[in-house]
Design a protein that fits this description.
The structure is a single chain. The chain is α/β, with parallel strands linked by helices. Helices cover about 45% and strands about 20% of the residues. The chain is built from 5 helices and 5 strands; from the N terminus they run βαβαβαβαβα. A 5-stranded parallel sheet has the order 2-1-3-4-5, sandwiched between helices. α3 links the parallel β3 and β4. α2 runs parallel beside α3. The longest helix is centred in the first third of the chain and has 13 residues. The protein is globular, with a radius of gyration of 15 Å.
């Protein structure tokens, strides 16, 4: 029997905000393989605009980007949204100060690059369940 659309689970939507094309592509493939809808932003300003318009369930956010850093995006989402999306920050930065700051701003997970894909996917599963 076919499910009627009102009872079918809504496809979870993930926004990738990163300026590295290779990372975006590998993450997009892994997320789509999980049946998630993936949107892509190449910088922080675009990430904010898409979040406002599309209201993704999860944002995977790079820290170092042109136009607006991941920190500024995180801060704005946490400050201006009543129900902000879950946020995973990914970074090549080693400093623990950055991690502490991201946690203070309310990031849901903080993952250092390079990371094993299954580490990120476990976090995605946890935050979307």
């Amino acid at each position: 029997m076919a499910k009627d659309s009102s009872t079918a689970a809504k496809t979870k939507r993930v926004l990738l905000v990163d300026d590295d094309a290779e990372i975006i592509e590998s993450l997009r493939l892994a997320l789509e393989a999980k049946g998630l809808e993936v949107m892509i932003a190449r910088d922080g300003n675009q990430g904010l605009a898409i979040t406002e318009r599309e209201e993704p369930d999860l944002v995977i956010l790079d820290m170092m980007m042109p136009k607006r850093s991941g920190f500024l995006v995180l801060e704005k989402l946490r400050r201006t949204r009543e129900n902000p999306p879950r946020i995973i920050m990914i970074t090549a930065n080693e400093g623990s100060r950055h991690k502490a700051y991201a946690e203070m701003l309310g990031v849901d997970d903080y993952i250092r690059k390079p990371f094993p894909m299954d580490r990120l996917m476990a976090s995605v599963d946890r935050l979307l369940s």
